[in-house]
Design goal:
The complex is a heterotrimer.
Chain A (H helix, E strand, L loop, with lengths): L14 H4 L19 E6 L2 E6 L4 H7 L23 E4 L7 E2 L9 E4 L3 H15 L16 H10 L16 E2 L4 E3 L9 H8 L6 E4 L6 E4 L11 H6 L5 E3 L12 E6 L8 E7 L2 E7 L12 H4 L3 H4 L6 E3 L6 E3 L1 H12 L8 E6 L4 H14 L4 E5 L19 H11 L2 E3 L10 E5 L7 H11 L2 E6 L4 H5 L2 E4 L8 E4 L4 E5 L12 H11 L9 H11 L16 E2 L20
Parallel strand pairs in A: 1-5, 16-17, 16-19, 17-18, 19-20, 20-21
Antiparallel strand pairs in A: 1-2, 3-4, 3-5, 6-7, 7-10, 8-9, 11-12, 12-13, 14-15, 14-21, 22-23, 23-24
Helix pairs in contact in A: 3-4, 9-14, 10-11, 10-14, 10-15
Chain B lengths: L8 H5 L36 H38 L4 H40 L22 H12 L10 H17 L10 E3 L2 E3 L10 H9 L2 H11 L3 H32 L4 H7 L3 E2 L3 E2 L7 H14 L23 H26 L9 H8 L1 H27 L7 H51 L14 H9 L2
Antiparallel strand pairs in B: 1-2, 3-4
Chain C lengths: L14 H5 L1 H20 L38 E2 L14 H5 L5 E7 L7 E9 L8 H5 L5 E2 L16 E2 L1 H4 L26
Antiparallel strand pairs in C: 1-4, 2-3, 3-5
The chains are: A alpha/beta, B mainly alpha, C alpha+beta.
Bound molecules: iron/sulfur cluster (SF4) (4 copies) and FE2/S2 (inorganic) cluster.
The site of FE2/S2 (inorganic) cluster has 13 residues of chain A, from loops.
Chain lengths: 572, 496, 196
């Protein structure tokens, strides 16, 4: 397991000691004794009260002093590979110690700016660059590369190497998501340690000796763990790269927008790297209680749902009779088709468990009050494999949310996506379905007179639709997901709505208007407000006030978490 | 550090293996400019090279030939039409009267005055370009002759086409009748002014008695000129007023004030000539300008009335509203009386201005520079070639002189800056008018005392004084230092 | 309120200056001089004004029949520099697109499967209408892959999209190689075949 005692995971020091004197103070005797479990240290003359047992890097971080490091990672064991973190301490002036390995002790003084340290940092950086190809121009890491940043910060001298550099494999495919460039690798072993300690699937190791060392997969195997993408994130240089993201964009063009992964019920926090209205990749965002700093590979590529195969414009009619319409015309035509069906028992409403809670609320009130239904059916992606860490078997991001909505509105929720008994006319909010989609699509096209589908991507189901309305993904709207552990997580709009798509609540508003209903939602916050007023677990919360890391709703938290899953402090 | 990335940056900028332009298909690459920048061109004081002198002579010869062809066209055209009348059975006097008149309307007024005026529209642009070291218009091409600019002459056709096809904008609140009438009122007097100018003496060609010039025998010649010239102001002032435009009105006011002021001077400068020649008829003035003064000077008006020439030239420029007296137009300030005119109506105003230039050049020639008379050798030519050939040469002479004075008028326009309005009025009323009155008085006294001979002596004395003044031998020097800057002179007077 | 007044005294001109007849004639002589030199003098078409011969003073260059030579550093239209094998030298690093102040370079990168070099542009477009011809892209390129040495300027076009030149249109001119390019051709820097 990762070291539990990182500064970020520890409780903050008491406020009285946090406000430490900023002026230089070289003598520890003038400093008041630290509270229980904390020690006093002085970093470059700045006094800090830090938790006992943290290393010098974390201690310095507390007072905003940066000690450079490559191989250290707060969530991994200490390897002491890179020697970039060398500093001087008051214990032994004139000698260098590794900031990642040495722990603080009471009254320790840390020096990070002495000539000795500076020279060591410069030398260390130069050593790392001895055989480095410096092909930043074609390196995806460039722009977020520690080697680049530290070169500018701690070396910034021209190369003194006049001989050939050691050649290593430039483009070795490690696994489905990861490609390796041996020349760029600085052999920090972060990737190896991650696979051993966090993913617990030791698939890679360091092989060879001296300057011919490199990272390689075990013979005959490949890096195909479900968590392999994290090695790319923690690799400080461009040695491990994401094959999905490779060469699609330079990182300095991208804006990181905080959102939530919708690939499974875990609801990992991610940052979507966005340029204009396109998402280029997902990176994990730290949430110690949900996903720590990790992300699974399926989640990592799940942004493709918002990019590829989208339903772009509204369509009326199926097959040869298909006509593409503006959204106003499509709403009119859909409303006309639905008008005679209001209150009919021939009609069924399906709501996908992939929608945001606000969309579900809107869809449900539409089913109840405008279409006169007493029950709703749930639909969603088929379950998949899971584990005891991040991956849940339920691949829908918001299944508990639909329960919550149905309960709040007093609707009967039938957990089946196949309303056989009266399947003449169907309204589907979300085109996800289980089973053999093409067979089901054909069957639906035969059996159903009316099939209104609000869909994100083209599937056999959307093919079968008589009325197809383009739906926005969660990336294109504000909203919440209620995850597997009863945590309500809020996300903001990351990209503009693509094509003609709209969130379900916006479609409901228009359809409702055309059908004479009273449910008109102007925003997700409004829909959330409607739900919060009716639902006990939400207890009058407002969307705006929800914290970025989410809240666990009362009564919805599980009794026990899976063995390795990150969880709120104090839960089992 | 990196071998992949590092390479000499200068290589990136240096064309390797190609000169700039190797990819363009044009071989335009030359050496970079040498020598100091910002100096005048190296040939600023270069003399004409022999081949350029040869070219100049050729060009002048070419122009003379052109004028000769023109003259021949007038003469033979005249002969043909008079002959036609005779063949058709008209009596001799009638044939000569009507034939000459019609032929000259066709060949002098239409073919010469109008054509020259039209060419001048292009000449002005081209000549001003030469004065300003430019090339001037040379882009228009005749169909099928893509590679010949023809000195810009196709631009005339292009301009005509443009003027005729442009939308005519008529100001809604203006006086419609006058607005449409005004260009014609301005244009017509300019054209008919030329009627009284003789281009040749009476002569006989193959039995027909001919003269070039519509009505040179008019008794009231000069009065006709005054009368018709003063109608022109109506065209401008009515046009500006009928446009219902403040700038137009401003231009019209300036035009009428200026033209009426200078008409007085214009008239008075010619009174001296009337006194000297004792006639108003232009043809008899012509016939008196033959022979030589003191045996060598051509017996021309210029030697009798040099003061009047200066005043007349200024007054005429003001009368035809050309720079430096172009205040009614004032393109850079008020645009002028024709501001609302567009299309062909504007074109008529414009061509009218050039017709006026031609007419006044013709008058200038006639009154002061011996008209159709050659300066020397007329007697010898008459003896050897006969009067008919001489008449042909005289028409040619007249054309050449007229073209020269047209050029002078244009050169003046492109040399001097526009006057301020008060300066125009001061010059007209305070300088030119008194000077011309004095000239009349002086001429009268001298003629009374010494007759023609005395007048000639007076004129030559005046001319010498004038030339000396210009050259700088005589003149009233200002006392004191040459301090022209007002602040400097003020400072000098303060500090003693 | 007292205000500063400046009295400007008109210079005290005598009658000669007032009439300025002499200056009139002088002015006329100057303009006539230019007129006749330019009328009779033969135009020397040498585009270097400083080297012209003869009496004609006209300095106009009648573009496009006559052209002045571009100075050596002239930044003409861009070209993508080819390698010896005809493929662009460009490695789609986006440095030019990043530095471009007009944001007129659009690149999409792709990957070569076989070659030692990995990255190349699948699309490389420059909107020459937006380009401000600053040359920063040339400066920024680490591969000497974009140059402005064509000596032409971007041609006139009849519609805006035509001013956007794609990779095929930009890839022209003589190939360029540098000693450090060895890796481009599937060899290591020591000249050995690259291992993959
Ligand atoms: S790992 Fe960093 S330093 Fe190395 S090529 Fe990539 S960006 Fe450049
Ligand atoms: S691949 Fe990256 S994380 Fe792994 S050892 Fe090399 S540099 Fe470190
Ligand atoms: S010359 Fe300047 S503006 Fe034009 S493409 Fe290059 S960097 Fe952009
Ligand atoms: S800077 Fe050079 S190598 Fe990089 S994308 Fe532009 S042209 Fe290609
Ligand atoms: S961070 Fe300390 S040795 Fe790498």
């Amino acid at each position: 397991m990762a070291e539990p005692n990182t500064a970020t995971a520890s409780p903050a020091p008491p406020p009285s000691t946090a406000a430490a004197p900023a002026g230089p103070s070289t003598s520890a005797t003038t400093i008041a004794p630290a509270p229980e479990g904390f020690v006093n240290v002085v970093v470059d003359g700045k006094h800090a009260v830090v938790p006992q047992g943290v290393n010098l890097i974390e201690a310095a971080r507390q007072v905003n002093v940066a000690i450079p490091y490559f191989c250290y990672h707060p969530k991994l064991s200490i390897a002491g590979q890179c020697r970039m973190c060398l500093v001087e301490t008051s214990d032994a002036r004139g000698r260098l110690v590794a900031g990642c390995q040495i722990r603080v002790k009471e009254g320790l003084q840390i020096f990070t700016k002495t000539d000795l340290v500076k020279d060591a940092q410069r030398a260390s950086e130069e050593f790392h660059l001895v055989n480095h190809p410096v092909d930043c121009a074609i390196c995806d890491q460039s722009g977020e590369c520690k080697l680049q940043d530290y070169y500018v910060g701690y070396d910034a001298k021209p190369s003194r190497i006049a001989t050939y550099k050691v050649n290593k494999p430039k483009r070795k495919i490690f696994g489905p998501l990861v490609v390796y460039d041996g020349e760029r690798c600085i052999l920090c072993t972060r990737c190896v340690r991650f696979m051993n300690e966090i993913a617990k699937e030791p698939q890679i190791a360091m092989v060879g000796r001296g300057d011919h060392s490199e990272i390689d997969t075990v013979p005959g195997g490949q890096l195909d763990s479900k968590y392999s993408g994290n090695t790319v994130d923690i690799c400080p240089v461009g040695a491990l790269l994401n094959r999905d993201f490779r060469f699609t964009s330079r990182v300095w063009y991208l804006e990181n927008e905080r959102t939530v992964c919708d690939a499974c019920a875990n609801g990992c926090n991610v940052g979507a790297d966005v340029r204009a209205d396109e998402v280029y990749r997902y990176l994990p965002k730290r949430n110690e209680e949900v996903n720590d700093v990790w992300l699974c590979d399926d989640g990592r590529v799940s942004y493709h749902r918002a990019m590829d195969g989208r339903v772009e414009t509204a369509r009326i009619g199926r097959g040869d009779a298909a006509r593409f319409l503006s959204d106003e015309a499509a709403v009119q035509s859909t409303a006309e088709a639905l008008k005679p069906l209001v209150g009919s028992s021939e009609l069924a409403v399906l709501i996908s468990k992939t929608l945001t809670t606000e969309e579900m609320l809107a869809a449900a009130v539409f089913a109840r009050d405008v279409l006169g239904q007493k029950r709703i059916y749930s639909t969603g992606r088929p379950p998949g494999s899971g584990d005891d860490f991040l991956i849940r078997t339920d691949k829908n991001p918001n299944a508990p949310g639909l329960d919550l909505v149905a309960k709040a509105l007093g609707l009967e929720l039938i957990d089946a996506d196949d309303p056989k008994n009266h399947a003449q006319h169907l309204v589907m909010f979300g085109a996800e379905m289980t089973g053999d989609l093409s067979a089901r699509g054909q069957a639906m096209a035969q059996a159903l007179k009316t099939l209104v589908v609000l869909g994100v991507q083209h599937t056999p189901i959307t093919e079968a639709a008589t009325h197809l309305l383009p739906l926005s993904t969660h990336l294109e709207q504000e909203g919440t997901f209620l995850n597997y552990y009863g945590r309500l997580q809020r996300f903001r709009q990351a990209i503009p709505q693509r094509f003609d798509s709209m969130p379900a609540w916006a479609w409901v508003t228009r359809l409702s208007k055309a059908l004479g209903g009273q449910w008109l939602f102007e925003s997700a916050a409004e829909a959330f407000g409607v739900l919060a007023a009716k639902s006990a677990p939400l207890g009058g919360k407002s969307l705006e006030a929800l914290p970025d890391t989410g809240v666990v709703l009362e009564g919805l938290a599980p009794a026990e978490y899976p063995a390795r899953a990150p969880r709120p402090a104090g839960t089992k | 550090m990196s071998s992949t990335m590092s390479h000499p940056q200068n290589q990136a900028m240096e064309p390797v293996g190609i000169g700039a332009g190797a990819l363009t298909g044009h071989d335009v690459h030359r050496e970079a400019p040498k020598g100091p920048q910002g100096l005048p061109p190296s040939n600023f004081y270069a003399p004409f090279r022999p081949k350029e002198i040869a070219g100049a002579v050729a060009l002048i010869g070419y122009l003379v030939v052109l004028c000769a062809v023109w003259a021949a066209m007038m003469i033979f055209g005249d002969w043909a039409i008079v002959g036609l009348f005779r063949v058709l059975g008209a009596s001799l006097p009638a044939a000569e009267l009507w034939g000459n008149a019609i032929a000259n309307i066709l060949f002098v007024v239409l073919a010469f005055v109008m054509l020259l005026a039209t060419l001048l529209t292009m000449g002005e642009r081209k000549w001003s370009a030469f004065i300003q070291d430019r090339i001037g218009p040379n882009r228009a091409r005749l169909p099928g002759l893509k590679n010949h600019a023809f000195w810009g002459i196709p631009h005339i056709l292009a301009d005509v086409g443009k003027m005729m096809t442009k939308e005519e904008v008529v100001p809604a609140m203006g006086n419609q009748t006058l607005f449409h009438l005004a260009p014609a009122i301005a244009f017509a007097p300019a054209v008919i002014l030329f009627a009284v100018i003789p281009l040749s003496p009476d002569f006989t060609l193959w039995g027909e008695h001919l003269h070039i010039g519509v009505a040179p025998h008019l008794n009231q010649g000069l009065l006709y000129i005054f009368a018709i010239a003063s109608i022109g102001v109506l065209g401008t002032s009515l046009g500006g007023w009928a446009s219902n435009n403040k700038y137009g009105l401003l231009g019209a006011m300036r035009a009428s004030a200026q033209m009426i002021s200078y008409e007085v001077t214009l008239g008075l400068t010619l009174v001296g000539l009337m006194l000297i020649f004792g006639t108003l008829r232009l043809d008899s003035m012509m016939s008196q300008q033959t022979g030589h003064l003191f045996g060598f000077l051509p017996n021309w008006g210029v030697f009798y009335q040099p003061l009047a020439i200066v005043a007349y030239f200024a007054a005429a420029s003001a009368e035809i509203k050309r720079a430096p007296f172009d205040l009614p137009e004032g393109d850079s300030e008020i645009v002028g009386y024709f501001i609302e005119y567009s299309g062909l109506k504007f074109g008529i105003y414009m061509i009218g201005e050039f017709v006026e230039v031609v007419v006044f050049a013709g008058l200038f020639t006639t009154l002061f520079f011996g008209g159709y008379h050659l300066p020397w050798g007329e007697g010898w030519l008459a003896g050897h070639l006969g009067p008919t050939w001489l008449a042909g040469l005289q028409v040619l002479t007249f054309l050449a002189k007229t073209v020269f004075f047209c050029w002078l008028s244009l050169a003046v326009r492109w040399t001097y800056p526009r006057f301020r309005y008060d300066q125009v009025m001061n010059l007209g009323w305070k300088l030119l008018l008194p000077a011309s009155i004095a000239n009349v008085a002086l001429t009268g006294v001298v003629i009374l005392a010494g007759g023609m001979h005395g007048a000639a002596i007076m004129g030559i004395v005046e001319l010498v004084i004038l030339l000396a003044w210009v050259v700088g031998a005589v003149g009233v020097r200002r006392s004191g230092k040459e301090t022209l800057l007002p602040t400097e002179s003020a400072a000098a007077s303060e500090h003693g | 309120m007292p205000i500063d007044t400046v009295t400007i005294r008109e210079p005290d001109y005598g009658p000669r200056e007032r009439l300025y007849l002499r200056e009139l004639v002088r002015g006329l002589l100057i303009t006539s001089r230019h007129f006749f030199r330019n009328l009779f003098g033969e135009r020397d078409l040498n585009s270097e004004v400083g080297e012209r011969q003869g009496a004609n003073l006209i300095a106009t260059v009648s573009y496009p029949e006559e052209r002045r030579a571009y100075p050596p550093g002239y930044r003409g239209m861009h070209r993508l520099v080819p390698r010896e094998d005809g493929k662009p030298r460009c490695v789609a690093c986006y440095m030019c697109a990043t530095v471009c102040p007009a944001q007129c370079i659009y690149i999409e990168a792709g990957e070569y499967d076989q070659e030692g070099i990995e990255k190349y542009p699948t699309r490389f477009e420059i909107d020459e209408l937006r380009c401000i011809v600053c040359g920063f892209c040339v400066e920024a390129c680490p591969k000497d892959a974009i140059r402005m040495d064509t000596g032409t300027h971007s041609p006139a076009v009849l519609s805006r999209p035509l001013a956007t030149f794609d990779k095929e249109a930009l890839l022209k001119g003589p190939a360029v190689s540098h000693p450090t390019d060895a890796i481009t051709y599937g060899k290591s820097r020591r000249g050995e075949p690259l291992k993959h």
